[in-house]
Amino acid sequence: MPKTAPFEEHTERYEGWFEHHEDAYRSELDALRRLVPTTGYGVEIGVGSARFAAPLGMQIGVDPSGKMLGYARERGVEVLRGVAEWLPFRDETFDTALIVTTICFVDDIPRTLADAERVLDPDGALVIGYIDKDSPVGRRYQETKEQNPFYRDAVFVSTDELVDALEAAGFTDFEFVQTIYHWLDEIDGPEPIEEGYGDGSFVGIKATR
């Protein structure tokens, strides 16, 4: 079942994270800007409140949380209620599919990636942003997940695990960026954005075929 309850019950707390950690949020957003195409028709899968979809130019978003979709709609994104594993779109609909800090919440990662591949144009790109399981922030989240209503049921993945899953879904070419080199409360200003992965806690992958 979709892990929607925390997002329905703690919507304001979720929104407050972006205000309290604005420098981290801006760093993640700027990292993804390096990967997300600037043209074409785009969807965010697990759009939440459209904190990423709106500034990154995604026209439509899907999410199982009605409250989150309300915020996304206010930010100018067309919304549909649905889950990542069974997207309500025809084959080859989009030029870009975006999944940000959502992959750890889906029920079935292989099915999610396969359906993202299905709705993408053959020349389209899937861009995923996430906290790497093996990073300092990822390890901290896992150690304290029982205290966090959002991450309590999350299943974090490493970059290598995600690449394996992407290859199984039919993706063959990958581009990586990384950022967030400090614990979130210690960040005071923009974090560096670098190619690759293994140092930054937030990783972006652009996957194509």
Automatic annotation (TrEMBL):
<keyword id="KW-0808">Transferase</keyword>
<dbReference type="GO" id="GO:0008757">
    <property type="term" value="F:S-adenosylmethionine-dependent methyltransferase activity"/>
</dbReference>
<dbReference type="InterPro" id="IPR050508">
    <property type="entry name" value="Methyltransf_Superfamily"/>
</dbReference>
<dbReference type="InterPro" id="IPR013216">
    <property type="entry name" value="Methyltransf_11"/>
</dbReference>
<dbReference type="Pfam" id="PF08241">
    <property type="entry name" value="Methyltransf_11"/>
</dbReference>
<feature type="domain" description="Methyltransferase type 11">
    <location>
        <begin position="44"/>
        <end position="128"/>
    </location>
</feature>
<protein>
    <submittedName>
        <fullName>Methyltransferase domain-containing protein</fullName>
    </submittedName>
</protein>
<dbReference type="InterPro" id="IPR029063">
    <property type="entry name" value="SAM-dependent_MTases_sf"/>
</dbReference>
<dbReference type="GO" id="GO:0032259">
    <property type="term" value="P:methylation"/>
</dbReference>
<keyword id="KW-0489">Methyltransferase</keyword>
